[in-house]
């Protein structure tokens, strides 16, 4: 209640006493105005609805991804900002094909399982794959056992995301290696296929896809994920009868690379236009959902930041640039192209900020910056805490902006409350209905406020 009252007082200018004394009242008022405008705004939420419902999943290389590029370019021009342009990049074109089928045959009949091909997996062929399964709980289990155990079998990677971590990204990290590298290790021991338990902290019937890898020197095994509840069922069924067989069929394949685009927009700085403050997110998403949290929310954060700055009539000293990156989910082609551009042009970036943790309640920022820069950020901590931004932690940033680190660009990532993120991540459940408007808008205001402070003061 005290937090809500404090925010109310700042927004309506009744009291400025909670602002940090080292910052002028005009800066506290500007940030209060960002939050007021953002919380009253419905246009950004409407934009996200269009991106999710009228366009939908936007896997790089697909028609939907190009629709998203055109929509974002048009929307940015309508703000209006000073410059909007497209940056071409070439992306892998992986096609999912017909809906996947998976079932387990038991002594009492056939049971369908909810499944999804893993990203960039090869297909099974028209006849699908059928075989007995071997259940393992880690990649090391394959490496440390007799390979004959797996030959001609389907390996079921059943490691669950560790639930005891408070930070769900650690939970995700505890099991994601089976998705990324599982098919490689399975191929080494003569397996014919791979099934993984979806990498999720929730128990539901949504399969979660995501990128996987092959090496050309080994057979490319078709790989699928099944939902966590179906994984429980498959495990329990196997423990009762190890002779069960599993069938699955996928039609996915990959064709030649195709052109796609990063979408770039700028508000030019009046004092140091050649020095850039970058805010970014990725425009592509997996195809089985709507890409609402991953990363439609981040796109709205960047788009909304430019709107807030323009609507507040703030004239930045440095150029504020927004990039909607293409192809983060598969090969980061857009991020690599952008990094190449800043190298060739020798552009100076003050900082790169990324939003890729969904539209949940913002908690603060992860900061891969120098010690001196971190001290500057710490100096704003009291003001940021007024708006619930209690976390400033060393390390982190984001996947796309990580390619700028080679050129000495400091990195900052928005941290959100991630407890529900992996309920939706890479699944059919990543839909617009799972976005809360207020939390989404608080994220926009948080990023805008940080950009404002970085632009106003030395960093």
Would you mind describing this structure in some detail?
- By secondary structure, the chain is of the alpha/beta class.
- It has two domains: 2-94 and 256-456, Aminopeptidase (3-Layer(aba) Sandwich); 97-251, Glucose Oxidase, domain 1, CATH 3.50.30.
- Helices cover 35% and strands 24% of the residues.
- It contains 14 helices and 16 strands.
- The longest helix has 20 residues, at 292-311.
- It is elongated and about 75 Å long.
- It starts with a helix and ends with a helix.
Provide tags for this entry:
459 residues; Aminopeptidase; 2 domains; 8-stranded mixed beta sheet; alpha/beta; 16 strands; 35% helix; single chain; Glucose Oxidase, domain 1
Give me a quick take on this structure:
This protein is an alpha/beta fold and 459 residues long.
The largest beta-sheet arranges its strands as 1-10-12-11-13-16-14-15
**Could you give the distance between the termini?**
34 Å
What composes the largest sheet?
Answer: 8 strands, mixed
Which range best describes the helical content: under 10%, 10-25%, 25-40%, 40-55%, 55-70% or over 70%? 25-40%
CATH superfamily of the largest domain: Zn peptidases
- CA-based shape: elongated
- Decide which structural class fits the backbone: alpha/beta
Topology:
Elements: H1 2-11, H2 25-40, H3 43-55, H4 63-77, E1 83-95, E2 101-106, E3 109-112, E4 115-117, E5 129-136, H5 139-143, E6 154-157, H6 168-173, H7 177-188, E7 193-197, E8 223-226, H8 228-240, E9 245-249, E10 253-267, E11 272-282, H9 292-311, E12 318-325, H10 333-345, E13 348-354, E14 362-368, H11 371-379, H12 381-385, E15 391-394, E16 411-416, H13 421-424, H14 437-456
Parallel strand pairs: 5-6, 6-7, 7-8, 11-12, 11-13, 13-16, 14-15
Antiparallel strand pairs: 1-10, 2-3, 2-9, 4-8, 5-9, 10-12, 14-16
């Amino acid at each position: 209640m005290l937090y809500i009252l404090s925010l109310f007082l700042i927004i309506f200018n009744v009291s400025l006493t909670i602002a940090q004394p080292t910052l002028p009242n005009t800066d506290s008022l500007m940030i209060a105005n960002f939050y007021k405008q953002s919380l009253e705004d419905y246009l950004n939420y409407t934009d996200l609805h269009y991106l999710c419902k009228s366009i939908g999943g936007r896997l790089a290389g697909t028609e939907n991804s190009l629709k998203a590029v055109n929509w974002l370019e048009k929307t940015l021009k309508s703000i209006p900002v000073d410059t909007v342009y497209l940056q071409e990049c070439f992306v892998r074109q992986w096609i999912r094909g017909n809906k996947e089928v998976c079932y387990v045959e038991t002594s009492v009949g056939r049971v369908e399982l909810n499944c999804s091909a893993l990203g960039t997996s090869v297909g099974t062929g028209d006849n699908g794959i059928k075989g007995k399964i071997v259940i393992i709980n880690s990649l090391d289990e394959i490496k440390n056992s007799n390979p004959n155990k797996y030959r001609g079998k389907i390996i079921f990677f059943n490691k669950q995301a560790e639930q005891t971590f408070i930070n769900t990204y650690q939970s995700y990290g505890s099991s994601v290696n089976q998705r990324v590298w599982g098919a490689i290790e399975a191929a080494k021991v003569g397996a014919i296929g791979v099934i993984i338990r979806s990498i999720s902290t929730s128990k539901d019937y949504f399969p979660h896809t995501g990128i996987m890898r092959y090496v050309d020197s080994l057979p490319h095994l078709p790989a699928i994920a099944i939902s966590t509840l179906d994984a429980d069922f498959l495990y329990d069924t196997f423990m009762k009868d190890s002779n069960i067989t599993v069938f699955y069929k996928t039609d996915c394949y990959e064709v030649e690379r195709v052109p796609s685009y990063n979408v770039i927009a700028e508000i030019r700085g009046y004092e140091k236009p050649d020095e850039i403050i970058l805010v970014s997110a990725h425009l592509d998403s997996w195809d089985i959902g709507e890409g609402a949290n991953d990363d439609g929310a981040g796109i709205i954060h960047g788009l909304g930041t430019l709107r807030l700055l323009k609507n507040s009539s703030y004239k930045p000293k440095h150029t504020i640039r927004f990039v909607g990156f293409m192809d983060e989910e598969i090969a980061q082609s857009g991020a690599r192209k952008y990094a190449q551009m800043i190298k060739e042009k020798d552009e100076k970036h003050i900082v790169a900020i990324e939003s890729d943790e969904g539209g949940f309640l913002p908690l603060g920022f992860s900061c891969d910056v120098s010690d001196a820069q971190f001290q500057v950020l710490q100096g704003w901590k009291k003001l940021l805490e007024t708006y619930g931004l209690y976390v400033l932690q060393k390390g982190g940033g984001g996947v796309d902006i990580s390619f700028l680190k080679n050129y000495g660009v400091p990195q900052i990532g928005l941290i959100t409350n991630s407890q529900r993120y992996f309920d939706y991540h890479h699944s059919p459940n990543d839909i617009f209905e799972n976005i809360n408007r207020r939390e989404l808008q608080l994220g926009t205001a948080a990023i805008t406020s940080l950009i404002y402070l970085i632009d106003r003061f030395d960093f």
